Each structure stands twice: as structure tokens, then as C-alpha cells.
Input
Amino acid sequence: MSKFWSPIVSRLTPYTPGEQPKIANLVKLNTNENPYGPSPRAVEAIRREIGDSLRLYPNPDAEPLKIAIAKRHELQGITTREVFVGNGSDEVLAHAFQALLKHGAPILFPDITYSFYPTYAGLYEVDYKATPLADDFTIRADDYLGHGEAIGGIIFPNPNAPTGCLMPLAGIERILQGNPGRVVIVDEAYIDFGGETAIPLVARYPNLLVVQTLSKSRSLAGLRVGFAVGHADLIDALERVKNSFNSYPLDRPAIAGATAAIEDEAYFLRTCQAVITSREKLVAQLSELGFEVLPSAANFVFARHAQHDAAKLAAGLRADGIIVRHFSHARINQFLRITIGTDVACQTLVDALKKQLA
Ligand code: PMP
Output
């Protein structure tokens, strides 16, 4: 801390990202990356773009990408007016905190959730109330009803992170109906692994903003592309903040690669299904080893073992060259969050756990 720092930065608890190890050959199951790599069409589009036109500024509205996203949801009435894109969904969420959640009243989010939310709240001076999860670790829709304009808005991931638990669309609809005067942001970073997106609700709820990422189900974490779908009024607010921050949120390779990835529906469906199949197999294997695994609709599982300390298990796995995520928060410090890798990576993990539990 220094006298040159602004008070906001001095008070800020910065987000701690998951480890990106410098050692090669680790079995990396800690930051929910997709084991299958992006669509070959996306890789080819990026190559072409790098070869042709890096001298030129990108399209400031990332128009081709917005068109591809809108087209995918055109049956739900989505046009490019209802789509916003940003440099990873982290940036989309950051703009949303400033543009839509800052009303001088606390916002609501779950107490166990994506740890960037309290960081953005600190950065943008948005007060918040962390709302406990139910005993079974799900988010209870009832806790988010009837607050009127005493709250600044609501944000939660669906499925939640790091639990993987899904809220059915009916619960989301109740939250939207219960808060007509405030924006409800549903962060769908992991929705493509078996959940049901809230995008069809956008046409009926002008207070809904759905945020998605290409980092997980499209396997483009390194390209940094995320987007939001919502009423054009909400998108206009996000554009205002974005244009006041950086007129070119996405570079040319990102626009080209992300557009091609969105258009390659067959590859997307095939790789998501492969992850889901591996997840179901891993859940069965972990359960057999005595783990309790929360029901997951994500590309990771959240599991604990009644007889074995999670921090010790994580350290033991690490010694075997396998990294998973462990959180120190008291309510979840007996869980491991394990990203679904290839079947070979999952088997390596199961074998290492068997050895430790023996
Ligand atoms: N939301 C949630 C719930 C996440 O877990 C993540 C990934 N860390 C993100 C958003 C951000 O993803 P990205 O910035 O890579 O799009």
C-alpha cells in the first residue's frame, strides 16, 4: 500500500485467479478449461486473420460476432441490438456492475459464488449482501424475492460456481418477476454442460441480463471473449460504459475466432457431450471411492470425503502432478473442485485418489 494509491484501491481485496502453473506435464484440473481445444474452424479463422490484417483496427462493434450470436438465438427474438461482447465474460461482468448494478443500494449474490463479484463490488463501490446457500448448497430463489428497490440488483452464476449446482428456469423466472425494478444478471459461464439457458426469457423480462463466455464450452479461454444477451436498453448501458473505457474491446483474431467458434455448432455439441459423458463417469468413480459429489451441471465437480481432509488430498494430488482447486472458505473447505479433463486425465486423478485413500 502506498500514499499514491486511491482509497478504493487501498481497500480492495483483489481477485485471486486459479493457478496457471509454469511446470509442463501437470494434469491440470483446476481452472475449468475445456480439454478438447477449440473448433478447428476457429483456429483456421484466427490464422487467416493474423496473416491478413493486424495492421488495421478491428471492427469497434465486433459486428460479425454479434451477428453470429444473434443468429443462434433468432428464434428467441434476439437481434444484434440485444447482444453485447467483451474481453472475456469477466470484462462483461465488470461493465455490468458499473452500468446496471450501481444504484446506491446493496446488491444480492450468494455467499458461496464466483469470487470476482465481491472484487467488482469493491472496485466500483457497490455495496452487497452475501446471501447464504441452502443446506444442500443450492441457491434458493425465495431469498431473492420481494426486496423492491431496497436492493441495487441481483447477480448469480447458473450453474453456480464453485458448486456446479443448477437453478431450474422456473426459479430464475420467479426472481425476475419478484424484482421488476432491478436488473437480474445470470452468469451462465457453465450453462452449456447440461443446463438450460435463460436467453429465451429475455424477450419477456426487460430486467434480465444473461452473460456467457467462450472460455469453457467453446474452449477459447486464451482468446478472452464473453458476451451478454438482454433487452436493448441494458445493452445500450453496457455499450456506453464500454465506449468510455476502450473503443475496441476485441482484437481482430478474437472477433474472427469467436465468430467461427459460434458458427461451428456441430463441434460445440460433440465436445460438450464428451465432457458431460466424462463427468458422469467421474461422478460414479468418485462416489465409489466414498466421495459425496454435489449434482453438477458444469464442466467440473465439487466433491468431499467424510474421512479425508480436502486440503491434504489436494496437496497429495499435487505431489503426484495433478492440480485441482481447493478453497479456504470455511463452509466449503472440505471440498475439492475438479475440472473434467479427458478420460485419461480423469482416470489418472481417480488412480491417484485411490492410492491416497488406501
Ligand atoms: N463467471 C464464472 C462463474 C466463472 O467461473 C468464470 C471463469 N473464471 C467467469 C465468469 C469468467 O470467464 P471468462 O472471463 O474467461 O469469460
Notes: The chain has a mean pLDDT of 96.
